[in-house]
Amino acid sequence: MTTTTEPQPPILISQGAEALLYLSPYLTPQTASITKYRPPKPYRHPTLDARLTKHRVLLESRLLIRVNGIKGVRAPRVYYVDPAGGKIVMEYIDGCSVRDVLIGVLKAHGGAMPEGEQLSTEVKGLMAKIGRMLGAMHKNEVVHGDLTTSNIMLRDTSKDKGGGELVVIDFGLGSVSTQEEDKAVDLYVLERAFISTHPKAEGLFDEVLKAYAETSKGARIVLKRLDEVRLRGRKKSMVG
Amino acid sequence: MITITLPPLPGSDRPYPAVHLALYTNVRNAAFLHSQLIAGNKDFDYGFIDASMITSTTHLLTALQRSLQAYVSNTLKTRNVHSEIVFSLSPNNNISKAFTTFGITAASKTLFVFKVVTSPDFTAAKIDSHLKASVEGDEVEINDDAIRGTADMKKILGGYRIQDWRKPDNQKAEVARDDQGALERKVIDAMVLKYVA
């Protein structure tokens, strides 16, 4: 155990509409953690604001803990939750997003996504891993709500064991649902993310779906539903 | 005895106070220390934790951080920052049960002693000499190996109601260490769940 000296200040590493992400030491100066902080919104009535923030913090942290209990799926571990203060302190994932990985692959091939035989087994394997992981997550009734290639991280391989492990982050829009519709929309959103960030990477998504289909009986039903969702888009009710 | 200062959470206005911390084994006067604590003797205003309930330094520091956070944000659920450390360890919100499970009892043989520096009077020298005079036991250095030696698996699994756990029997050292990490994760998850359930 070390005796702490000067505390390093937290570093703001990302900002979204809802929350700020800080990188800061936790417990010991050597342990990095991420704090997701939802600041109060001045344009909202204070009472309502406090209630919404508390509700969302609790929802997200419950989901993170639930996901971590599922075999084959990993999310950042939750270290500390302050529902009233709008803070979740969680594990820092040292690595890069799947988006960055794919962009790297594209760059290596001069901007063209290799197809068929050319597609390296490594990338194929990664896609299958994503498919299997989502299959396990959906089988346990967890829906992410905002699946993108940026929200799936690949832990740094050069570090100790667990290298190359996939970690799903940001369950801020997640929910627990048994509906095929919600799961299909999850996949649809990911597909859109694949197409929009890497137009040439569309073929890769088939690899994801192939692995996904093999995870459970329910998964094949979800894939059937995905065809319907593709035809009409994300919103089912067509209201709003 | 060592003195530590935990790094504050982002967005905290107040830094955490420093904490003096010591680990004792072969404690012979637990009953006396317990009675002083119950009587509310100001000289014995320490956080006493039965070391058999602690799995690792991370586990210990997690509880300490919670208590300090509650202290600086004025959201203590128990009488003071020291009792809050004991309460933080508990997986449920029953305060008196937290004390009997995780706090000092007359039967405690190993003890963690905390003193949060909430007043400039609590200098390291003063606290150290008072502890040396008050606790009849052997002070040992705090590290994961020492904690593994004082941890009582059966009590920990019971205290945190962890059921699906295989006892790490005669495995290779590396596997055993891995299991220790898995237990630590389960325990800390249980502590977090208290806040989100």
**Overall pLDDT confidence of chain A:** 86
Q: What is the overall number of helices of chain A?
A: 6
Helix content of chain B: 40-55%
The dominant shape of chain B is globular
By oligomeric state, this entry counts as heterodimer
CATH architect. name of the largest domain in chain A: Orthogonal Bundle
Give a written overview of the molecule.
The complex is a heterodimer of chains A (240) and B (197). With 240 residues, chain A is an alpha+beta fold. Chain A contains six helices and ten strands, in the order E-E-E-H-E-E-E-H-H-E-E-E-E-H-H-H. Chain A has two domains: 81 residues, Phosphorylase Kinase, domain 1 (2-Layer Sandwich), CATH 3.30.200.20; 144 residues, Transferase(Phosphotransferase), domain 1. In chain A, the strands form three sheets. Chain A has a five-stranded antiparallel beta sheet. In chain A, strands 6-8-9 form a three-stranded antiparallel beta sheet. Chain A has a two-stranded antiparallel ribbon with strand order 7-10. In chain A, strand 2 and strand 3 form a beta hairpin. In chain A, helix 3 packs across helix 5 and helix 4 packs across helix 6. The longest helix of chain A has 23 residues. Chain B has one domain: 2-Layer Sandwich (PF0523-like), CATH 3.30.2380.10. In chain B, strands 1, 2, 3, 4 and 5 form a five-stranded antiparallel beta sheet that branches. In chain B, helix 2 crosses helix 3 and helix 2 runs parallel beside helix 8. Chain B is globular. Chain A: One of its GO terms (biological process) is tRNA processing. Chain A: Its EC number is 2.7.11.1. Chain A: Belongs to the protein kinase superfamily. BUD32 family. Chain A: This is EKC/KEOPS complex subunit BUD32.
